[in-house]
Amino acid sequence: MIIGQNTYSFKRYRKFVLPLISLIIVTAGASFVCDATLFKLRTGILKGLAFLRFMAPPDWTAFKDMLEPALQSMLLALLGTVFGTILSVIFAMLAASNISNKWVRNTARVLIALERSVPEIIILLLLIAAFGLGATPGIISLSLGCIGMLGKLLADIIEEIDPVLIESMESLGANKMQIIWFGVIPQIIPNLISYALFRLEINIRLSVIMGAIGAGGIGYELDYSFSMLQYHRAFTAMIVVIVMIFGTERLSYLLRKKFKVEGALQ
Amino acid sequence: MSTIEIIMPSKRYRQKATIFMVSAIFILLACIYLNFNPLMFFTEFHFVRDLLGEMFMPNYQMLYENTSTGLSILQTLSMAFLGTLYGGIIAFLLAFLAATNTMPYKAVRVITQVFVSVLRMVPALVVVLIFVIAVGPGSFSGVLTLVVVTIGSFAKLFTETIENVEAGPGEAIFSVGASRLQVIRYSIIPQIMPSFIANLLYAFDVNIRAAIGLGIFGGGGIGFQLQMAKSVLHYKDVMALVTIIVVLVILVEKLSDYLRMKILGDGKLS
């Protein structure tokens, strides 16, 4: 018997036929809906490359105008993360089964899940409709956005902490606040820092997009330069954005290493 | 004669208190600089209440009256699907070029890794603005953006997965004369396939949210509809679209969780 004969038999690959055919049909349908054609791709890529070359020399005189918006974006993300982390700790406490009772827990879990399924940008659009343009709706939507991710992760962490500690504190007559402050918080701090730093990276990216919608900052500069056809200026904004994101990522990596909480996420 | 003994807090405590105070002051200054007052959310809450009042009841009639709504839902789903599929395939191929155990030439590895990190650094907003100029506004520019974003976020992950496979089976068939491609085909791919598919399903989950956001910047789909309805102040339509988006996101999440559980057996994203 030749070994190779069996390896390439049709029988082995039969179970892949149906998924493959359905995948091809769905892909073709999706391409039709999105009007995605190879011709469009080819012309688009050529046009895109030509456009990038056209943008090429960045307008360095605009660089100093970009610094303040960049700072605004970073502060927006930072404040969003700080308030968001505080909010998510509260929500996580409410959603953890070893701290809160059943009804509160279920309500909090449902709220967290619901929040997770509303993209931050939609929250921002609604808040802008309510409060008007500016940093306030941006910070609030970033904070609310944290609840969905951090709230769930932290709730799981809180449920896994050592129950002996809580019981012993209870037996000594500590009230709920004391248990949370001295028993729960110190145990979750390393994870909290790690998640918050990870969320800060996400929020920096989001704050750029939010700026373009109306929260101000570097995203606004970028979108404005594009729509005013000042492409050299837009290129400067792009460079500033990339440096900003790169910087936050390095910083978050270094801090995570310093707090020795690496590896929880990432 | 009694002396008053002043008990100083411990050094560690003082250090912590200082860090806390400095960061509190910094956050306060940042709030003042950005003109942000957290309490405003509560004092000015009547704006939110007014908005909610205007939003109810959501106008679900627009779903079947306006045929473009159904199409835009389909467009958003297709955008996320195509972006995940093509982005995933390209990321998969690039991962083999970047992994130490599949690519012997260091130059190729470094170039691939740098390329992927650059893609990861460029935010989606920049990519979509460029693609809107290159291929025109519409869902195709959204697809291309999602392809780039997916490559950026998943190529590195796949590289690590490939580097973490067990070397034993590969070495065994290499020693009996298999070529490098055969080692990849018969030893590495079977090992990484479950993780690859699970991550791809996760990417679809992420991309559906991103696709909604991209619509606002000319990427087409339901985000574009939402932006339009908002800018003409049809808040009842906005509410209808928001509920549809929430349902869509939840459905995709549940579907991707279910499929992942089926593929991996125990539902763990490894």
TrEMBL record, chain A:
UniProt main location, coarse: membrane
UniProt key word Transmembrane helix: yes
A cellular component term, taken from the record's GO annotations: plasma membrane
Molecular function GO terms recorded: ABC-type phosphonate transporter activity
Subcellular location: Cell membrane
UniProt xrefs under PANTHER family: ABC TRANSPORT SYSTEM PERMEASE PROTEIN P69, PHOSPHONATES TRANSPORT SYSTEM PERMEASE PROTEIN
Protein name per Swiss-Prot or TrEMBL: Phosphonate ABC transporter, permease protein PhnE
Location of the ABC transmembrane type-1 domain: 70-252
Family recorded in the similarity comment: Belongs to the binding-protein-dependent transport system permease family.
Transmembrane segments: 16-39, 74-96, 117-133, 179-198, 204-222, 234-255
Gene: phnE
This protein's UniProt keywords: Cell membrane, Membrane, Transmembrane, Transmembrane helix, Transport
Membrane topology note: Multi-pass membrane protein
Pfam family, one: BPD_transp_1
UniProtKB/TrEMBL annotation, chain B:
Entries under SUPFAM superfamilies matching the protein: MetI-like
Cell compartments where the protein resides: Cell membrane
Molecular function per GO: ABC-type phosphonate transporter activity
Gene3D superfamilies referenced in this protein's UniProt entry, alphabetically: MetI-like
GO cellular component terms, semicolon-separated: plasma membrane
Keyword Iron-sulfur: no
Entry keywords, A to Z: Cell membrane, Membrane, Transmembrane, Transmembrane helix, Transport
Domain ABC transmembrane type-1: from-to ranges: 73-256
Transmembrane segments: 17-36, 73-98, 110-134, 183-202, 208-226, 238-256
InterPro entries recorded: MetI-like, MetI-like_sf, PhnE/PtxC
Membrane topology, as annotated: Multi-pass membrane protein
A Pfam family matched in the record: BPD_transp_1
Main location as per UniProt: membrane
Family per similarity comment: Belongs to the binding-protein-dependent transport system permease family.
Protein name: Phosphonate ABC transporter, permease protein PhnE
Originating organism: Mucilaginibacter celer
The organism's taxonomic lineage, starting at the top: Bacteria, Pseudomonadati, Bacteroidota, Sphingobacteriia, Sphingobacteriales
